[in-house]
Amino acid sequence: MSRFRLMSAAVLLIAATGAQASSFVVTTDTIVRALDASSNATSKISSSFHDDKIVLAARDDAASFVASKGEIRGAHLEGAFQHIREVSPSLNASDAQLAQAILAI
Description:
Blueprint: H1 2-48, H2 53-56, H3 59-67, H4 75-87, H5 95-104
Keywords: Signal
Pfam families: DUF2388
Protein name: Holliday junction resolvasome, helicase subunit
């Protein structure tokens, strides 16, 4: 009977280790995909609006927005968000991504 318990414990240990490894891989893949999507959105925004006066005027407000983690929302930044979303309606970017892209210009 003790040999059966030992074998059962070994099987459970192996199964648990495999589950943890696959969980780590799934989590890592999800994080990498999210970062890639964020990076792609930021690069599309910054390359499209690098000479847009409305967007360039919002750089200081964007810096305040990013530094305050979204607490400070200036009028220039709100105008730039609206302008960007009107010009590129298919762009699915959060306010934080837009602000970071404005700073990258």
